[in-house]
Amino acid sequence: MISPLLAILSVSLLHAGVQDAPETAEENASGEPVLVLEETSHPSALHVHADTYAAYHSDVDAAGRRELTSVLALDETMDSLAAYYTDGRLVDAQIAYAALVASQHPEFIDAVRAIADYYGAGVTAASLMNDPVFVTGFMGADTASDNVVGALTTDTTTMNTVASRYREAAYDLQGQTWARARAHDRRTRLEQIESGSVRLQTPFRMAENGNGRRLGAASDLFGASASAPRPEAPAPSLSLTVGQSQLQPDERRVGRILAVAALQSIESGDMRAMDVLLADPAVGRCITSARLNLAQCVAAGHFKYEDAFCIAEHALEEVAGCLTTTRAPVNE
Questions:
Q1: Position with higher pLDDT, 79 vs 271
Q2: Dist. CA 39–CA 208, nearest whole Å
Q3: Which among 197, 245, 319, 331 could disulfide-bond with 86, CB atoms 3.0 to 4.6 Å apart, if both were Cys?
Q4: Is 156:320 a contact under the CB 8 Å cutoff?
Q5: Partners of residue 182 on adjacent β-strands
């Protein structure tokens, strides 16, 4: 098998000085090397997908700040979120964004390029597609993995925080006349959810200039000054507490993300292999199920305040569960 051999050689080749990768790092304010994204007038396909993930979290942020004082407010939240839940759009977007987080680690990227220089980009790309998990054994992959898991854990935690607000609103709004009025627009509401993806626009663009700022959780891009330095990607919160099972990184998902980052560093814009890794069918099915459950929840509701519960349960919490990069340990 070539994959394990590649993982081992990623260490030995670096120490032997095989890699000829161009200088791609600079120091940030703390003196830590940070991979710099190249400036380009035409964003890469990976950035286009990543922009969608950032735009999604701008909508999650807007949902968390929205004043729930009318039927329209609940409808806006539901439609803005559900629009991302078709065609595997959000799955591709999350993997692309996380790959950019992983690509900020020069040691990892240099290890990938050393392997590609030795075996050739085609052989390396084929190995990544055949078994994405093996890339987690490359030098620097452990740190890249930690930042990926930490950033995405922060994002899903933010989603669950917003979900808690809507779950509480489902009770609080029962005292509002407009919210406890019988809902007669269930068919129209369901049609809006179904057609939301057609109307989706994602105007948010992440800066690609080489400013040495860290790219962390997408949810951290909002609620702060655009000119302020981006926060460091947080370490994954995987501590064990009494009565809980310790969560572990999902090696399969993280491996897929790191493999996309690796392909981006060696394939001059060729997206054929990357398209395969950007799609995660299992996560896609999970999100599709959440969207269907959202529609069923809305169809079964009789009052508008129940829509707040549907948003919390299915549009946010269930989707956050689909997007997680951690898992509980399997009991043997």
A1: 79
A2: 6
A3: 197
A4: yes
A5: 303
